[in-house]
């Protein structure tokens, strides 16, 4: 607030050193006046500006954030801005799904010659933000919305005889020494079978919904030696992602693909393939159960995502606020995710503290934004996080919103194609930028 | 507790008019960690810098913030001042309270408040500045030149004459490039081979140039000053260390009717051949695709005939490694192949001109061979179909150039000139002949160029029609060229004996793959990208890699040579010192926390990140990790942003610093 009691917005601008910073310099040299509300943080390149910095700016009380760099083709480092652009496309979609006020986050390309553009952009953002008033809703104390309940597909029996064939094959594999351990489903949960005599512990029925690939990151499992793992097509996608990210040498693993009729889970409602494609062997044949759509059709986030996105941003935010309020930061979602394999999670980093570790509204938002965004273009939709969450937060919807964005903007589905490079870390000159001024 | 000194500059009136520098100094001196804060009229002046140096010493400052103008203006100045006073130069930060504050705001109170917050931000950053040392990179003072056309030859000779060793890699059996096959050259009409071959011989004999002909670059590792190049020497089947170049082999070879690449199919050669008599090295190569011995274990006559025992049918490709400190790319161009088959979807070819269908429709390089005294016709102008002397020749320029519809949008720049040359040389050979030129515009910018074109028209009587040719057909043994003269506004039909197409210039085949190995950018047409079109025309964005000649854009010989000398001088600059100094503000990776997902490796625009292993001092494998090559990193920070475990970080802009800055804005 200023002396007149008028609201003075605080605007944080992350700008690259070579274009926008110099553009702002030029505005100075040419004495172009603009409101004094903006604080520039100079970084070498837009390539350096990650989403955590944007979140941080709002956490410290920014009312709007501006991110700006060199026009396409002008990057001092040739491609930093292209990498940034791709991340922003996805990040904006996540913010949309959260119901964030998009009028508070601005992306521009401002060159060293565009002093006037800098002046205009800063002036307009300041005025616009002044009208919006102080930013608070991300950290509103309580929410009162309720998330749509995910619909489930009917449970169907699994192909008859699959269980027997599975046991038989595992017996062979263990007996002839092809593998030292089979990671499979047991009656009460996952089992690691190391002796041929124990293959009877393996089961295959419509309770096998969990994704066993998450056990591959566990040291105690790795220690057991070469493994065979039982996967459904949805789980198999995790292996494809892990392989791309050098977390897995596919040769070191024997993959037993199970033809699956669906497990009666929400994810099964949108499943469009039923037979694993990259497995070393496939067991069973699917019944002629109707699929949710033709193979590789767009991931329909399902009706639940549509219901969420149909709400107003304020309503969405209220829903999430209420959900995140319950988060106790137990990190079960992280623990169970097959693709969350960092040894030191970013939330544990304390110099600096990127994410407030406390289970407060701020800390919870920062965590959930980070968790979801780290899975952008990676999440394969196994929904383990949602099932693991003791507070019953429907994390799935955030993942789905990003999966939908990846598909819509880049024609990309995680874990579908072994030959395509990961979405983040690559870019295309054609990546859209209609949101960048 | 840090001991930070803050120096607020008035910049005369520039800052002091709008910002209350006294109040500011007072407020700033209360910031935590600030040892002293003062203001001064011109901190960048000699006495200003002296004040900074004095205070560094007197107050034992461990970091300095200069609140003045843009760091782009004076950061270097103040870093030098700090260094003189014994403070590590990377412990200097600037707060830009002029361009970003006093010059753009009028309200004194608000500007002063903003200045304070900008200084606060810089103080927080300065507190966390690390002492950094410039990175010293040892330099192998040896250069690689890729491509032995006139550009590569010029660059190699210049570098070698400057006293450095040169490794030249040429993929054809001989160096010389396109120029070796040209007849006479505009604008002076000197004989191309007469001026080029002595230069080729010089390359062949230069004590400091090592020539790998019939070879290609297989792999490039390392970075400026320290490249390791793997070269593939293609199987030549002739041991050139034994061969004396006597020529017995190609005289005895029974398979003499292979199309000569050097003559662009206008002439023939044996299966064992030197591409042209003045080749460097003047040693033959066996064409494995046609040699009867290699294909079906027949013949073998050359082996029997060779007194030196140089023929080796068992020869295979060999890989050799060379260490160099800089690379010059001079891979030149090729002509747009105007036939029906195209390598790019956007190119449609010019089927309507009958190239490849009518023998007497040829491209401009083929015509050069027909004109050349050492060409397949010994310089006597005979048309390919029946050897008759053509009395009417049509030259069509801009075939494939400046054509968005089915060619390339750019101007190939040299065709106007060589077409005029062709018309002129033709007239010199066929005195009663008539040259007809279809053109779009005549672009003859250059010393003596316009005069040259005028000479072709006025002295040698070439008829110029402004307009495009729509179709060429063959009727009664004549080529009927139908076009328009848009200046006269009439359609024209010319009955021709020979048609020469000035096809667009395109980058040589394989240049994109080469560029990827070298990490050099290229445009949508495949021409290599310079760092800056005006200020850094021969540098590329890969440090230590330079470009020259037609691989960068269409250009003629004078320009190619000028650019080659420029590239050579840049190489000499790189080699001037034993060590290169590089900015230390680069990325590093915490190998303890890195999970080896290699997101950073994929994203790094400079391929500066490599896969590595962490091992115990005893050499036991612990884990995989990403590692930054300090010779390649340019410090953009893209890796930091994509690293999920935040194991990558950037000196000069560390995570801690950035968060401290943002948090200071609370
Ligand atoms: C018909 C015609 C007439 C012309 N007449 C004139 C004239 O009269 N006057 C004038 O000034 N200019 C003229 N020019 C232009 C002239 O040919 C060029 O300016 C000149 O040849 C460019 O030289 P360069 O060394 O860049 O390329 P090039 O001559 O193309 O040489 C490139 C060399 O690199 C080699 N190479 C390519 N790729 C690789 C690789 N991957 N690895 C290793 N080696 C490789 C090639 O084999 C070649 O030897 C004419 C051009 C044409 C088409
Ligand atoms: S800072 Fe940029 S150039 Fe350096 S390693 Fe990281 S991504 Fe590569
Ligand atoms: S992105 Fe981070 S975790 Fe992944 S390899 Fe690079 S430094 Fe390691």
- Compute the separation of the termini of chain A in Å: 29 Å
Biggest beta sheet summary of chain B = 5 strands, parallel
Superfamily at the CATH H level of the largest domain in chain A? Answer: Lumazine/riboflavin synthase
| CATH topology label of the largest domain in chain B | FAD/NAD(P)-binding domain
Largest interface between protein chains, with number of residues from each side: A-B, 62 and 61 residues
CATH architecture of the largest domain in chain B: 3-Layer(bba) Sandwich
CATH class of the largest domain in chain B: Alpha Beta
Roughly what fraction of the amino acids of chain B lie in strands? 15-25%
Order of helices and strands of chain A: EHEHEHEHHEEHEHEHEHHHHHH
Q: Mean pLDDT of chain A, nearest integer?
A: 90
Total DSSP E strands of chain A: 9
Oligomer: heterodimer
The appropriate CATH architecture of the largest domain in chain A is 3-Layer(aba) Sandwich
Coarse morphology of chain B:
elongated
Strand content of chain A: 5-15%
* Distinct ligands, ions and cofactors found in the model: flavin-adenine dinucleotide, iron/sulfur cluster
User: Helix segment count of chain A?
Assistant: 14
- For the terminal residues of chain B, how far apart are their CA atoms? 21 Å
């Amino acid at each position: 607030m200023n002396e007149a009691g008028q609201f003075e917005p605080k605007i944080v601008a992350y700008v690259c050193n070579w274009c926008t910073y110099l553009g702002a310099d030029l505005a100075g040299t040419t004495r172009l006046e603009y409101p004094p509300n903006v604080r520039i943080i100079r970084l070498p390149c837009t390539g350096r500006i990650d989403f955590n910095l944007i979140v941080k700016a709002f956490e410290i009380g920014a009312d709007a954030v501006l991110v700006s760099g060199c026009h396409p083709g002008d990057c001092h480092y040739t491609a930093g801005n292209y990498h940034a652009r791709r991340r922003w496309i996805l990040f904006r979609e996540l913010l949309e799904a959260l119901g964030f006020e998009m009028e508070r986050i601005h992306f521009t390309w401002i060159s060293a010659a565009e002093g006037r553009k800098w002046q205009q952009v800063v002036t307009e953002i300041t005025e616009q933000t002044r009208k919006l008033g102080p930013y608070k809703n991300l950290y509103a104390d309580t929410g009162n919305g309720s998330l749509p309940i995910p619909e489930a597909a009917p449970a169907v029996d699994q192909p008859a005889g699959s269980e027997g064939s599975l046991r038989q094959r595992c017996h062979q594999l263990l007996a002839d020494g092809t593998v030292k351990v089979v990671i499979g489903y047991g009656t009460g949960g996952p089992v690691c079978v190391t002796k041929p005599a124990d293959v009877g512990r393996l089961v295959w029925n419509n309770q096998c919904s969990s994704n066993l690939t998450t056990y591959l990151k566990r040291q105690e499992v790795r220690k057991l030696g070469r493994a065979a793992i039982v996967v459904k097509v949805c789980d198999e996608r995790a292996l494809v992602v892990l392989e791309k990210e050098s977390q897995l040498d596919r040769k070191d693993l024997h993959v037993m693909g199970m033809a699956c009729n669906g497990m009666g889970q929400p994810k099964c409602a949108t499943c469009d393939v039923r037979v694993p494609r990259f497995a070393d062997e496939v067991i069973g044949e699917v019944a002629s159960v109707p699929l949710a759509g033709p193979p590789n059709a767009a991931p329909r986030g399902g009706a639940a995502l549509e219901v969420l996105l149909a709400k107003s941003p304020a309503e969405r935010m209220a829903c999430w606020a209420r959900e995140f309020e319950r988060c106790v930061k137990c990190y079960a979602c992280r623990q169970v995710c097959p693709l969350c394999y960092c040894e030191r999670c970013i939330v544990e980093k304390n110099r600096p503290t990127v994410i407030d570790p406390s289970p407060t509204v701020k800390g919870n938002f920062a965590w959930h934004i980070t968790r979801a965004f780290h899975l952008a273009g990676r999440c394969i939709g196994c929904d383990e996080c949602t099932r693991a969450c003791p507070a019953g937060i429907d994390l799935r919807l955030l993942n789905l919103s990003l999966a939908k964005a990846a598909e819509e903007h880049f024609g990309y589905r995680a874990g579908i194609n072994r030959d395509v490079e990961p979405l983040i870390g690559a870019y295309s000159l054609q990546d859209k930028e209609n949101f960048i001024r | 507790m840090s001991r930070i000194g803050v120096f607020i500059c008035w910049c005369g009136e520039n800052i002091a008019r709008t910002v209350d520098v006294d109040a500011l100094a007072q407020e700033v001196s209360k910031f935590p960690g600030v040892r002293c804060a003062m203001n001064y009229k011109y901190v960048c002046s000699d006495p200003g810098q002296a004040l900074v140096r004095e205070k560094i010493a007197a107050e034992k400052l461990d970091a300095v913030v200069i609140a003045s103008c843009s760091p782009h203006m004076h950061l270097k100045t103040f870093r030098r001042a700090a260094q003189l006073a014994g403070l590590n130069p990377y412990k200097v930060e600037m707060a830009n309270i002029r361009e970003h504050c006093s010059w753009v705001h009028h309200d004194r109170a608000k500007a002063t408040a903003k200045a304070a917050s900008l200084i606060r931000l810089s103080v927080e950053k300065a507190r966390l500045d690390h002492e950094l040392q410039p990175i010293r990179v040892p330099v192998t003072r040896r250069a690689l030149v890729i491509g032995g056309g006139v550009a590569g030859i010029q660059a190699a000779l210049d570098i070698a004459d400057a006293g450095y060793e040169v490794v030249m890699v040429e993929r054809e059996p001989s160096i010389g490039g396109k120029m070796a096959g040209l007849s006479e050259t505009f604008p002076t009409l000197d004989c191309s081979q007469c001026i080029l071959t002595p230069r080729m011989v010089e390359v062949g004999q230069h004590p400091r140039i090592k020539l790998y002909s019939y070879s290609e670059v297989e792999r490039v590792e390392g970075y400026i000053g320290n490249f390791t190049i793997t070269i593939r020497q293609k199987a030549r089947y002739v041991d050139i260390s034994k061969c004396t170049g006597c020529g017995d082999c190609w005289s005895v070879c029974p398979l003499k009717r292979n199309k000569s690449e050097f003559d662009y199919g206008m002439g023939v050669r044996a299966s064992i051949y030197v591409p042209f008599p003045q080749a460097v090295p003047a040693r033959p190569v066996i064409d494995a695709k046609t040699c009867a011995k290699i294909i079906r274990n027949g013949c073998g006559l050359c082996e029997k005939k060779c007194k030196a025992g140089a023929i080796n049918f068992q020869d295979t490709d060999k890989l050799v490694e060379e260490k160099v400190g800089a690379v010059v790319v001079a891979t030149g161009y090729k002509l747009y192949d105007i036939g029906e088959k195209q390598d790019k979807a956007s190119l449609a070819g010019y089927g309507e001109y009958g190239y490849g269908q009518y023998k007497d429709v040829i491209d401009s390089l083929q015509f050069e061979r027909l004109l050349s005294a050492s060409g397949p016709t010994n310089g006597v102008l005979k048309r390919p179909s029946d050897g008759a002397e053509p009395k009417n020749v049509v030259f069509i320029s801009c075939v494939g150039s400046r054509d968005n519809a089915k060619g390339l949008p750019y101007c190939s720049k040299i065709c106007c000139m060589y077409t005029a040359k062709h018309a002129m040389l033709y007239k010199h050979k066929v005195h009663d002949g008539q040259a007809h030129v279809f053109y779009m515009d005549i672009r003859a910018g250059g010393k003596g160029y316009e005069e040259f074109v005028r000479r072709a028209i006025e002295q040698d009587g070439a008829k110029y029609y402004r307009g495009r040719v729509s179709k060429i057909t063959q009727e009664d043994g004549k080529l009927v060229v139908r076009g328009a003269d848009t200046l006269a506004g009439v359609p024209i039909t010319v009955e021709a004996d020979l048609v020469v197409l000035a096809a667009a210039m395109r980058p040589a085949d394989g240049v994109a793959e080469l560029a990827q190995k070298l990490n050099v950018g290229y445009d949508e047409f495949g021409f290599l990208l310079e760092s800056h079109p005006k200020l850094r025309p021969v540098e590329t964005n890969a440090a230590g890699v330079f470009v020259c000649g037609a691989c960068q854009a269409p250009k003629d010989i004078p320009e190619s040579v000028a650019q080659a000398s420029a590239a050579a001088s840049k190489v000499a600059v790189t080699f001037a010192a034993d060590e290169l100094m590089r900015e230390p503000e680069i990325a590093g990776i915490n190998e303890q926390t890195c999970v080896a997902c290699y997101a950073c490796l994929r994203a790094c625009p400079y391929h500066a990140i490599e896969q590595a292993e962490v091992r115990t001092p005893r050499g036991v494998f612990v884990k995989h990790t990403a590692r930054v090559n300090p010779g390649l990193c340019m410090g953009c920070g893209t890796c930091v942003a994509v690293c999920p475990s935040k194991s990558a970080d950037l000196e000069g802009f560390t995570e801690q610093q950035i968060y401290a800055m943002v948090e200071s804005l609370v």
